[in-house]
Amino acid sequence: MRIDRHELLDGSKLRLYSGEGFTELNASDVRGFEPDDAVPAPQIATGVAPAASLIQPTPEKLSPEELADRAADKYGLPRQLVRSVMAAESGFAPHAVSPKGAVGLMQLMPSTAHDLGADPGDPAQNVDAGARYLRDLLVKYDRALWHALAAYNAGPAAVDKHGTIPPYRETLRYINRIDHEMKKSQ
Questions:
Q1: Cα gap 32→50, rounded to integer Å
Q2: N or C: which end of the chain has fewer CB within 10 A?
Q3: Which CATH number describes the domain made up of 64-184?
């Protein structure tokens, strides 16, 4: 199915837009999105400027690893950390969509991506915003890596509520997986 864009509704439904119409599906029914290699039709000026993103798309085609390294360098993070988070989040799949509606290489929730001024469907913007968010979490938790990773996975509210890493099985596995990947590369 070819679509122009998509958006997550209430965390469980996806609205897929095509032309003037749209289709709604359960988010869990969508396994991912693939880029369309067709050249888009030229836009006709309407007098209304499109909403500009704070992060501009990367003009050249970079691999997920190159995007991770570029974002890590930009935000002063270890390259292997950003690569390990990307591997845990999406397995390096640029158009991954989780059952909960997280999107892209760094699996950003659409609301988080919006708050960061990024288009979560654009791989370069997704990785840049994900790395910036990870850096912000490290600052928030005084460089405590496991706390920042727990907040990336379960949300800062969960970490704040528990005052430490929340005792969620998924979050503990997530932290251990990234920690293992980091140690493997040393």
A1: 26
A2: C
A3: 1.10.530.10
Question: Strands, E, within the chain: which ranges?
Answer: 5-9, 13-18, 21-26
| pLDDT exceeds 50 at position 160 | yes
Domain boundaries, given as residue ranges, for the chain:
1-30, 64-184
* Catalytic annotation, pick one of 20, 89, 170, 181: 89
Residues 6+ apart with CB under 8 A from 16: 1, 3, 6, 22, 23, 24, 25
Percent of the chain with pLDDT over 90: 63
Determine the pLDDT at residue 60: 64
38-50 pLDDT, tens digit each: 434 334 333 333 3
Q: Is 24 labeled as catalytic in the residue annotation?
A: no
